[in-house]
Amino acid sequence: MNTLTRENRDDAGAQTEQFVVPPASVIEAGDGYRLEVEMPGVNKDGLDISVENNELRIIGRRSLPVVEGTLIHHESRPENFLRRFELDPSIDANRINAKVEQGLVTLTLPKAEHVKPRKIAVS
Amino acid sequence: MDLIRYQAPELTPWSAADRWSNLRDELNSFFELPVWSSFARKGQLFTGWSPALDLYQSNDNVIAVVELPGMRKEDIEISLHDGTLTVSGERKQENSSYGDKAERTERYVGTFRRTIALPTRVDAGKVSATYRDGVLTVTLPKAEEVKPKQIQVS
Fold first, then answer.
1. Is the Cβ pair B119, A21 closer than 8 Å?
2. What pTM does this model have?
3. Which of A24, A27, A54, B1 has a 20 to 30 A CA-CA distance from B101?
4. Which residue, among B41, B31, B36, B56, has the nearest Cα to B3 in the 3D structure?
5. What is the ipTM score, two decimals?
6. Is B83 on the interface with A (CB under 8 A)?
């Protein structure tokens, strides 16, 4: 049931581009899961979410504000974000929904109809 | 006033070993601390949320860029005191309801406070801020007397 929380960290198909791993939370809510990923500086245009071979991949490319001046103190990371999860078989991949608000990406992953508990009427 | 040394954000490069290097770094920084400060900083070291902050300086302005994903504008507070800029606030758990079960919790929810000393005097009355895509940009115009001036040779 909690395969969604299993991360894919295998190095097969090593990325040439450098990414940072953003913090993410997975919450089982209602009839599915909610996945929250922090990607400051990423808006709708910079998001690339895909499902392939049961792997959910979220890439966020930043569009940071252009600031005039010289950098005198630096803590942020310049890399874009990447996070991968293996999808639980109970999730209906066709109905995954995503939104991004103030750099927080929220995905709703509903369970497929056939795995939902149901009452069976006695005839 | 608490001036806290910046703690590296818990973002690690993409690699299979990042969990371990992260843990190692934490342990290393823990042992590097003087004994007297380890208690005071315990909360910061292990649980706190200290958003990443960049500081820029131009001829006219000092600009602070702070990464604060998933906040509401109303929950961010900016204050200026004695040459230091403080950004603080509280991140609330949004749209959660009874019966939710956390499978994995990496996002930090709660209050944070970030203080930084400014390199020069600024005009407190003209400070402006924007919050976009989870990034807060605070523009602090320099005080007139510290702005660079061209002096004409007569």
1. no
2. 0.74
3. A54
4. B41
5. 0.81
6. no
